[in-house]
Each structure stands twice: as structure tokens, then as C-alpha cells.
Amino acid sequence: MSKKILVVDDSALMRRVLCDIINSDERFEVVEKAANGLEALELLKKNQYDAVVLDINMPKMNGIELLGELKRLKIAARVMIASTDSHEGAKVTLDALELGAMDFIHKPTSAVDCRDGIFKTNMLDTLGAVASSKLAVYETEEKVQENKQTLSRVMEIARKSSAKVIPGTKLVAITSSTGGPKALQAVVPNLPAELDAPVLIVQHMPKGFTASLAERFDGISAVKVREAKEGDELQKGTVYIAMGGMHMNVVTSAAGRHTIHYSDEPSREGVKPCANYMYESLCDSRFDKIICVVMTGMGADGTEGIRNLAAKKKVHVISQDQATCTVYGMPKSIYNAGLSNQVVPLEQLAQEIILNTGIQ
Questions:
Q1: Distance separating alpha carbons of residues 75 and 79, to the nearest angstrom
Q2: Is it the case that residue 158 has pLDDT exceeding 80?
Q3: Which of 152, 165, 148, 218 has its CA nearest to residue 359?
Q4: Catalytically annotated residue among 50, 103, 196, 301
Q5: Of the candidates 223, 221, 243, 222, which has an alpha carbon nearest to the alpha carbon of residue 232?
Q6: What share of the chain is helix, strand, coil (3-state, %, to 5)?
């Protein structure tokens, strides 16, 4: 049965073009259209859709306002942003993802350009992932407080027990894709400034978005968060997010210094940056233990890289469980390959990272 899609866009021509693209794929059927967020809200109050394709800039109620209302009313929906704002307006797009949108695609300003084969393919692939993803459930305030209390207890254990001193040098290497920006918000801000390891993150995002993501996390985290730059030397208690559009590697000098190096190979696993390059570059590193964390996302990025890394280094692999993944693709691939040492829900990832690295 075809997935039922709601298209929300204030341009009648753009609505027609997007509907034509979506209906050209037998997996989908556009069953409703709306010209603004207010119309969409009324439809979402009454009906359920497998996915919503949402513009940002609209009259009466824009996309951000609609997402805010859905969150306030606790109306769950699988939302994909398709907006001209989503490329240059990285901040607006991140706002949308934070409010519950699952993924995004940059929509050309001209309806004619939307018929381009690359845009059509990317849009349908992204829509397929969103429409098949788990429907988000809004956390209760009680659950939020419970998670904070658990993390606080973990920190006390780490400070008072032998977990404070875990021998050897450690590194945390995280990868995520669809649903990642929001999921990472449950992990990065919960890491302590005194974490006894640097943290690398490959989140599948285009160029320009990763700098905004790093800036946002840095403002709400105890650890330092930055978009990794060429030549950055890895420091404990610092999170390095891979730049969009390039592959992030770690280079180890003869003196044992670990620095960031970007390479410009073609996309791998259909993505750029690709986490496989990051993991494989760590094969010759001087780290005694590498904690690999694989989070929500479609595809299998990370599996080949971690398998190759595990053949040469001591690794501990933590994969996010199916119940808390927006898309259970990358973690499932890791689990099916027999590489997972732990499978944990999203809210426990930060505490497991702390317990496996210790604090300074």
C-alpha cells in the first residue's frame, strides 16, 4: 500500500511539481495539500499521514510555527523539510530539526529546477526514509527529569570510584544520520567537561550546516564543541564535528600527535562525510581504546569502517537500540554484523560513554 503524504507549500506551482514527483513513485501517494501551516495544522488534528513534506516560509503560519504547535499539542508527525531556506538558512533548518522534523532537503528556488533528476532522486530517497521511520513520541517532563537524575548518579560514580581512572588513552567516535541532530542533543550536552577523551562526530549533513550545529551544541554543553578544522590537534573534553562535504580523517604523527585531516574522495555509502573513513583512519592511531558509537540513520555507514578498525585496535562498540532510533538502519547493520558490544537506548548513550572513558 502506498504511503500517504501531505504536501505543505504556499506556492501552487511548487505544490504541483512536488506532488508530481511524489506521485511518480509507486511507494507514495499525495492525499492532501495545504497552502500554509494553519491549513496543515487543521488537517493534522484530524488525520494521520505517513509523512509531511513541509515548506518553511509561508503566510499565516510558517513551518517553524507549525512544528511548534505540533509539539505543544503533542501531535506526532513524520516531517521532512523541503525549503529554499534549508540550504542557506542552516539555523532555521536546525530549529526545525530540533522541533521534531526528521530530515530535510534543499528545494531549488525555481519549480522548473525541481524536475532535475538529482533533486528528484534525493527527495524520494529522503522521503522514503522519513515515511518509514519511527513516529516520534514526545517525552514527558517526568521522563526528562528521570534521565537527568540517572546521568547525575553516573557522574558521581565516575568521580568516586575506580571508573575515574581507566588505563590508557581513549577516543570516542560517533556516527549518525537521519534523526541525528536531535538525537545528538540527548548525548553531547550530557558529556562532562572533564571527559577523559576527545570525541569525533560524523553526522551526515551538507556543507554549512555542521558549523551551525557545532555552534549550537557548544552553547548548551559542558564540553567544547567545534566544527573540526584541518590540522586541529585532538584534545580531551572537546567534541569535533566533521565538516559537511568532506571526509574527516585522523592523522597520527611520529611523535604520537593526533590531528584532523580532510580528504575529498567521492561519496562512500552515498554520503560525504562518510564515517567509514574516520574509523579506518584510526587504525594507525596511538589510542589504546576507541569507543565507537553508532546512532540513528539509514544505510550502513560505519559498519565496514568499524570492522576494519576492530581488526587492528581495541574497540568497544555501542549501538543505539531500535526503539529509540528515528531510522534503525546504521545501528541495525552494526548489530547484524556482530560488532555491537552494547545495545542501549538513546537516553543511556551519554552515561555509557562516560563509564567507558572515565573522567580526568
A1: 12
A2: no
A3: 165
A4: 301
A5: 243
A6: 40, 20, 35
pLDDT at 140 over 60: no
Is 204 annotated in the active site?
yes
Chain segment 314-354, per-residue pLDDT in tens = 999 999 999 999 899 999 999 999 999 999 999 999 999 99
Give pLDDT tens digits for 203-228: 998 888 899 899 999 999 999 999 99
| The one-letter amino acid at 347 | E
* pLDDT at position 42: 97
- 87, 106, 204, 247: the catalytic one is 204
d(CA 173, CA 196): 13
Distance, in Å, from the CA atom of 162 to the CA atom of 255, rounded to the nearest integer, reads 30
User: What is residue 31's three-state secondary structure?
Assistant: strand
The active-site residue, picked from 86, 133, 177, 319, is 177
Please say whether the beta carbons of 301 and 277 come within 8 A: no
Question: Which residue has cell 564540553?
Answer: 223
Task: Give the full edge-to-edge strand order of the sheet including 103-106.
Answer: 28-34, 3-8, 51-54, 79-83, 103-106
